[in-house]
UniProtKB/TrEMBL annotation:
The keyword Transferase applies. This is Methionine adenosyltransferase. Its EC number is 2.5.1.6. InterPro entries: AdoMet_synthase_2 (IPR042543), AdoMet_synthase_2_family (IPR027790), AdoMet_synthase_3 (IPR042544). It is an enzyme of class 2 (transferase). Belongs to the AdoMet synthetase 2 family. It comes from the Bacteria. GO terms for molecular function: methionine adenosyltransferase activity. Pfam families: AdoMet_Synthase. PANTHER family: S-ADENOSYLMETHIONINE SYNTHASE. Keywords: Plasmid, Transferase.
Amino acid sequence: MSSTSNIVVCVRRAALHSDAGTEMCEHKGVGHPDTLCDNAVEAAARSLSRAYLADYGAVQHFNLDKALLIGGLSAPKFRGGRLLRPMRLIVSGPVAELASQSAEAIIQEAIYAHLKGTLDVDSSMIAVEPAVRASAPSLRRVNGPAAMPLANDTSFGVGYAPLSCLEQQVKAASDILNSDDLRAAFPAIGRDYKIMGHRVGDRIALTLAAAFIDRGVGDVADYFDLKAGVAQRVGEGVRQACTLRINTLDDLGAHDESGLYLTVTGLSAEQGDDGEVGRGNRVNGLITPYRPMSLEAAAGKNPAAHVGKLYNVLAHQLAQRILNDVDGVVEVTVRLLSAIGQPIDQPQLAAVDVCAPDGLSPAQRRGIEERIEQGLAELPALTRQLVNGEIRIW
């Protein structure tokens, strides 16, 4: 172990994760109720940040990381059903006042634009209800005039590299399900999907749940044909051979819509499936019970001062940077711990665990420390990327 100030580097020679006999990994797609909540509040956070920059020249104190999606009621039918009761999205959090416009209006406008552009749903299908209030005076100074904002929480972020083979497979399957090519070939596939992967030894299996849109499905036989086609396309596109199953709850003897995963909007939330911020993917797009994770909800958090967002994104970036740049390193985990009221570039602890079978030289250790220092110094640039939507956190 070596340490410089608050940066501590620990080295082991044996890999831990890659040698594990079993593994599980999950991804919730863009229309999944939890991901819907995450992306909605993140869209609102970006718009609110831009409004603060326009009014004050700096992002002010706010957090929109609490939201609840209340499911609706629908009656799917082959070739087109009806939405009987719309969904509701309640967004809560403290916000500093704006000089030019209402924060509630910005939040609603941003979320409706996101829902329409990403999921093709409008205000008649999901009602957005902001429930925001003034932020605490003691927290407003964290977004003050200083060049480096102060941490508005004592919290930690964690990231790792590289992705395992299973994690890559799950992300590849998600990319296929969300691709324009697949959706052009199968317009009946909805935006709500989930992928659960597991590995035993070298054997990988993926279980998919994917909502189908009723107006694009003619009958039971058509549904099963479409489902088989989607499964084939995903199976052909992933990087390694695996066992793949899709919509395993379907009634193979179904005679009507009731035994199939059919929806009106392509969202399970229309049929009562609720969602909440922070219950879905971590910032690398995965849920990984075999990996170190933070339970922080990064989505909707302040991109300038909330380390629950910044440190989780930065930790993954730093882990990948160290893996790429430092010879002999095969696995990296980075953990960053803040102290409320301290500059965000001065964590209480930056702990780096690396697997290097041949050990590390003093120069290699210093290279790791320099990359941590550089990443912390560049946090304002990371804030700008988050405000501009250049970094995906789901």
